[in-house]
Specification:
- The protein is an alpha/beta fold and 493 residues long.
- The strands form 5 sheets. Strands 2-3-1-9 form a 4-stranded mixed beta sheet. The chain has a 4-stranded mixed beta sheet with strand order 5-4-17-16. Strands 8-10-12-15 form a 4-stranded parallel beta sheet.
- A hairpin with a 4-residue loop joins strand 16 and strand 17.
- The radius of gyration is 24 Å and the shape is globular.
- 45% of the residues are buried.
């Protein structure tokens, strides 16, 4: 693997940011819409205004609680679930041990190719995209692809969890919309994990354990109520901030880092006062306000530097994992803009934070395109092969072959056994890029793009058509349906 990390902050920068975070938590505090967290902070000696739902944190309490979590939880992922790196390296980026990609983002739109239309995903789309993820070997966890509006919204996540468990052997997670859903998703999580307590505590399937803060400096009632129920099941706890530079947080990366870090550290401090034995980590997905359109942009230098700075602050100052997610780009369709933004964002985060490799997401993670997923898969394979670096050993050098071929007078490297054995592993054998010789006098950009997109479309449709239904044991299906029926009975009253 390539070694090293580009540091975006000096040690003195880390100290200044840390002290600023403590200052914000002490003098401004957080708005926390969760009574159980406010009570815990008050009992620990923090000032709390229950009417305003506001807490001011004593610096020594924050530092004590954060110190207790140092180096406890080491799994690195994106904002999704598959922990592609089992340790948080000291002086390297976090990199996958093998080629793996993030799949399934619980988006609200299906991007239809070739019509180019955004439409509501159907139940069949949900099933097909779960099966596509299951068929792709680099996808290690299949997270739920869509919010499916054909289900009643009160139970949509639970119905989608059922589809997930029935159509993939590697279930990831679905979202949790409200507290009453937690117990049913928790039951499904324990079923999928076969009651493995270690996995439940560190890497549970089915249920998300991410609690979004609301910048600036708030943890809302939905996150608090879901958290209050989820901690009963020993799931890990991740507080996630989405600072928007110039919108919900200061326009500078430094100022936004302070706001986001205060939200995450405040959440960890309050929760760990009650549940010290749970595992805690953070996540950030930073963006910036486009001053011309007011849209949010994620694939920009300032947004990426904010995420990198947050990761390195938590890594070097606190010994706590803080994940980032390179999937968010503002491109609305597959093609040049999507590829350019993805390449920039992934490469920039890949040398400052980690190399998570997402596929298929468009329009700031509001839409999924299977065509884009195929193209992303090919690009990410090339990125991973670069990240893997140079392997130096007897087989890759093969001095005997070099001496035997000599000046290529009787044999050559193209026909060598080494090339035959290793070309698929070493070379970037692309399927969708046109790497052929130029044979015509003119090439139109739109024709080249269409050719690539058509190839990707045919490939994903062929994969889905070739997928066979899983042979799920009947007793497992009965257990799933028992949970689903109980949820329908309670939540659809």
């Amino acid at each position: 693997m390539l070694k090293g990390i580009i540091k975006v902050l000096s040690n003195s920068d880390l100290d200044v940011l840390h002290n600023s975070v403590l200052d914000v938590l002490e003098k401004t505090g957080l708005k926390i819409d969760g009574l159980f967290l406010l009570k815990a902070l008050q009992e620990a000696g923090c000032r709390v205004d229950f009417k305003k739902k506001q807490a001011w944190f004593k610096p020594e309490i924050v530092e004590k609680q954060i110190q207790k979590q140092k180096n406890r939880y080491k799994l690195v992922r994106s904002s999704l679930t598959y922990p592609f790196c089992k340790e948080l390296p000291d002086d390297d980026i976090a990199a996958p041990d093998n080629f793996c990609v993030d799949y399934g983002f619980n988006v609200v739109w299906f991007y239809d190719y070739p019509s180019g239309k955004y439409r509501n995903p159907t139940i069949q789309n949900q099933i097909d995209m779960i099966k596509l993820g299951d068929a792709l070997e680099p996808v290690k966890y299949v997270n739920i692809p869509f919010v499916c509006s054909e289900f009643d919204s009160r139970i949509e996540t639970i119905e989608s969890a059922r589809l997930l468990l029935l159509n993939t052997t590697k279930p990831g997670v679905v979202e949790v919309n409200n507290a009453p859903q937690v117990k049913y998703l928790a039951e499904l999580a324990y079923l999928a994990a076969e009651n493995d307590e270690v996995r439940i505590r560190k890497d549970p399937p089915v249920i998300t354990y991410v609690y979004c803060t609301t910048s600036p400096l708030k943890i809302d009632i939905r996150s608090c109520s879901v958290l209050e129920q989820s901690v009963k099941y020993s799931f890990p706890v991740c507080f996630a901030s989405m600072p928007i530079l110039g919108g919900t947080t200061p326009v500078t990366p430094a100022g936004s880092i302070i706001i986001a870090a205060a939200e995450i550290l405040g959440g960890i401090t309050a929760t760990s006062l009650i549940y010290p034995d749970l595992f805690y980590f953070g996540c950030s997905i930073s963006g910036e306000m486009d001053m011309k359109t007011t849209n949010i942009r994620f694939s920009t230098p300032a947004a990426i530097l904010t995420d990198a700075g947050l990761h390195q602050l938590f890594k070097y100052k606190y010994g706590i994992v803080l994940n980032v997610d390179p999937a968010y780009i503002e491109a609305k369709s597959p093609g040049i803009q999507a590829s350019m933004l993805k390449a920039f964002r992934q490469m920039a985060l890949g040398c400052t934070v980690s190399n998570s490799l997402p596929i298929g997401v468009l329009d700031n993670a509001s839409a999924f395109s299977p065509v884009q997923a195929m193209i992303d898969l090919e690009f990410n394979n090339g990125l991973y092969k670069f990240l893997r670096g140079i392997e130096v050993n007897k087989e890759t050098i093969n001095l005997e072959m070099i001496h035997e071929i000599g000046f290529s007078e009787k044999s050559n490297y193209l026909g060598s056994q080494q090339t035959l054995d290793l070309f698929k592993e070493v070379l970037w054998n692309t399927e969708f890029l046109d790497t052929s010789y130029r044979r015509k006098k003119s090439y139109r950009a739109e024709d080249m793009d269409s050719e690539m997109l058509d190839k990707a479309d045919k490939k994903c449709k062929a994969i889905i058509a070739g997928v066979k239904d899983l042979d799920i044991p009947g007793h497992f299906i009965k257990k799933i349906d028992k949970v689903i029926n109980s949820a329908r009975k309670e939540l659809l009253q």
